[in-house]
Structures
1.
Amino acid sequence: MTSRLNTQFGGLSLRSPVIVGASPLSMNENTRLEMQQSGAGAIVLPSLFEEQVIDWSWNNGRKLTVRERGILEQSDRTKHHWACPDADSYLALVNRASSLQDIPIIASLNGYTAGGWMDFAGELEEAGAGAIELNVHHSRAREYVSSAEIEMTILDAIRDINSAITVPLFVKLGSNFTSLPHIARQLLSGAQGMVLHGRAPKVDICLDTLRLASRWRITGADEELDSLDTLMQVHSHCPAMSLAASGGVGNADQLTKVLLAGADVAMVTSAIYREGAGVIQTMLEGLVSFMEKHEMQTLRDLQMQRPLEFTSDEERTAYIAALTAHLREGKPSSASI
């Protein structure tokens, strides 16, 4: 793939702005190789869930909190959804994938309650993970006094995990936060990148049994992007934070749009389910064609053409300084507008 697509995402040097999002697809070695050959910049492995990390911590002699014991007791209900049977198997997967692939392998953790996150994050780094994605999933509102308490608990967990590793930490957030632009600024002290947005199964009610049901589906090829506005808001408010677009990026036009909106990379998953790993190459070829049409030599040229509005020359200057800093260093700086 042409070097003009080289980019940075939160400290990772990537050969392209397409990252394969977390899914069971990346469990297969041949599929990962196809993704790499098609031009993927990195691959996110399927998620390991907090109950699995709690079980690993308990097996390694750490005392569990009352909350963690409660989660572990309920884990039998979730086992059939796990891509990896246990944490040790996941470490083996990370080790093998990172040793066989020429692109970064990103480990994925789902949750934030587990007190063993710090120890296990260090194990993931030692196994070869190029970065760690924390897919934040908080408990129901009744367990907290306020939304501020939820956010503070998450921020504390992220800072703790980040302090235990030297590889980049990316935080994957859902869209149901009060203000993602403000969260982005707070996350600068603990995360090197944000993924917008994390998706969750849709809750449904079965009218035959009167029971709750969770339904998961891949994004349709004809669905519109729903993250452009949020990407632009977060990026304009906190340009020092590296962003990944997630959800609905399935063709070259959508890839180009999220990059123009403020994303450094795009997470692609549903399109690979629908069309196979070759869709990555098709998307990148379309991006190159767009860049050639507009006489852009590198992705930085594209980024400097983002359609952001500024109320003063000072804001524009601050934006360029922040963008240049994190592209050069690969890590967020404290500069923001």
2.
Amino acid sequence: MIETSQEDVCEVSCVHPEAVQAARKAQPADACVEVASGLLKAVADPTRLKILSALSTTELCVCDLAVVVGISESNASHQLRLLRTARLVRYRKEGRVAYYCLTDHHVKELLGSALEHAME
């Protein structure tokens, strides 16, 4: 539980109608919030974040990703399935090998922003 101090709360009750109206107007639709929340939950796992980071450099097969991230192929496959469900990665088959890549530039930007923010 996050503790609050007297310094980080209003000392008086006041509402700023224009600010509230602007903030309400800027709120995304509930359906969009649900999808975005699911996406962020998928990225929140350290193993999945490492997989996405590896895929931000190049397309990799499940076996390669397992080695890069240091997990079993079975675990890599499971994590990739979750990332696919969240529409963060896609794959293509070449014979019996499945190659994964990031779905689009938005995923790379999201990953880059998160890692950049963490390094500040």
